[in-house]
Design brief:
This protein has helices at residues 23-51, 57-71, 79-97, 103-107, 111-134, 139-164, 168-196, 200-210, 214-224, 228-240, 243-266, 276-289, 295-317, 322-325, 329-353. The chain is mainly alpha-helical. It has a domain at 100-313 and 324-353. α2 (57-71) runs antiparallel to α7 and α6 (139-164) crosses α7. Keywords: Cell membrane, Membrane, Transmembrane, Transmembrane helix. Belongs to the UPF0324 family.
Length: 354
């Protein structure tokens, strides 16, 4: 189900005189209702994120969007603003996310933790994409689940959605999977860590290398104490740094055949195969790594990212049919398998590192 078109119904069209004026002014006026609705949802999501430890505003936002889109049909006047939020604000969120990643700090972890992150992420991503269609999950949804579980939860799902050409139900299904199993990790990981005899450092390393959402990783680190938080978050940011190459690689593999066929028929120059927002993410990482970003900006980057991502996911969620999502038992099974894979590989690596 797509977001609601402005021309869906004559009774939802604003009076002609209301939108009279220069085209730029008309375009802005069309955005205002949808953006106002999105702002209200963001406020609720921010409040819930502060009240519920380990739950990110992005997760709350997509739940609100799905609930709204499933229980009612918002008037078409909201459509332009929702489309703006689901596209432009999504790309902004991914670019700003790059300002959280400082490569010198990530590299300071040492080659062993970084190798663990790379192996667990790539293996989980590849295995989930391969096994998903064999379990009856569509290739596009399998791709989104693979990205969300292996990299960084809802943000990764939203970024990959930009190049995967899936529908909004796929996004909601993948986000639901990473929320479910990431939330379960808040309880399971500390218990298993104690049984396995992991040190606080080992728990932080395991959480950062295997748990889906940044907020969930931070929650485990904050409650475990013993310096776990800094270790867990830094390892998690090392996984976030893999988002751009994974999205760029996937974009290349998905679009190249279509572009080749299009160029053969028309001679038109093929479009860029690496999305601009991925290049923006890499540029943001470079700027942060050079140390030229003011401290005050660095401190507010997580909040800006959370707000932008929450807005985008709320808008995407409004286009979801919950009845279709409820039939996603195979998606839940695939998400559980992917979570088990990344958890097992990461734990073996942590035990090997000692």
């Amino acid at each position: 189900m797509s977001l609601f078109p402005l021309s869906a119904s004559p009774r939802h069209r604003p009076p002609a005189g209301l939108l009279a004026g220069p085209p730029q002014v008309v375009a802005v006026l069309r955005l205002l209702p949808g953006l106002a609705l999105t702002a209200c949802a963001m406020a609720v999501a921010q409040w819930a994120g502060r009240a519920l430890p380990g739950v990110s505003p992005a997760v709350v936002a997509v739940v609100l969007g799905v609930a709204l889109g499933s229980l009612t049909t918002p008037p078409a006047v909201f459509g332009a603003g929702l489309r703006f939020a689901s596209r432009r604000l999504l790309r902004l969120a991914i670019v700003v996310l790059g300002l959280q990643v400082a490569l010198p700090e990530v590299l300071a972890l040492g080659w062993r933790p970084l190798a663990l992150v790379a192996v667990s992420t790539v293996c989980t991503f590849a295995l989930t994409r391969w096994i998903g269609p064999r379990m009856g999950v569509s290739p596009r949804r399998s791709l989104l689940i693979a990205t969300g579980v292996s990299v960084c939860g809802a943000a990764a799902v939203a970024a990959m959605h930009e190049v995967a050409d899936g529908d909004d139900d796929d996004v909601a299904g993948a986000v639901g999977v990473v929320v479910l199993y990431g939330s379960a990790a808040l309880v399971v990981l500390p218990v298993v860590a104690r049984l396995a005899g992991l040190s606080p450092y080992g728990l932080g390393l395991w959480a950062g290398a295997s748990v889906h959402e940044v907020a969930q990783v931070a929650a485990i680190g904050a409650t475990a104490g013993g310096g776990v938080l800094a270790c867990a978050v830094m390892v998690k940011l090392a996984r976030v740094a893999l988002l751009a190459p994974l999205v760029a690689f996937t974009s290349l593999t998905l679009r190249r055949p279509a572009c080749d066929r299009s160029r053969d028929r028309s001679g038109v120059r093929r479009p860029p195969l690496v999305p601009l927002f991925v290049l923006g993410f890499l540029a943001a990482v470079a700027v942060r790594s050079l140390g030229v970003v003011p401290v005050g900006v660095v401190e507010i980057v997580p909040q800006v990212t959370a707000l932008s991502l929450a807005a985008a996911l709320f808008a995407l969620g409004t286009g979801v049919d919950l009845r279709t999502l409820a039939r996603g038992g195979r998606s839940l099974a695939l998400g559980g398998l992917a979570t088990a894979v990344i958890g097992a590989i990461s734990l073996i690596g942590v035990l090997a590192i000692g």
